[in-house]
């Protein structure tokens, strides 16, 4: 199953993205900050992670660098 993790603090933007991907047959999940990204990626192994750059808690660049250490 193709799963997309959307990490976006603007709920309206995240909802638009989720509706678009779901209409195309993807399963989506959403996080509002960067703090739980690593644990969520390890737990769910998404096919794609969409990271906002400016996130509360931990920015998207840091999240991406951390994901790349194990994925």
Write up what this structure looks like.
There is one protein chain. The protein has a three-stranded parallel β-sheet, with helices on both faces. With 71 residues, the protein is an alpha/beta fold. Helix content is 42%, strand content 20%. The chain has three helices and three strands, in the order E-H-E-H-E-H.
Features:
3 strands; single chain; 3 helices; alpha/beta; three-stranded parallel β-sheet; 71 residues
Radius of gyration: 11 Å
Quaternary structure annotation: single chain
Major sheet: 3 strands, parallel
Give the ordered list of helices and strands.
EHEHEH
Provide a compact summary of the structure.
The chain is built from three helices and three strands, in the order βαβαβα. It is of the alpha/beta class and 71 residues long.
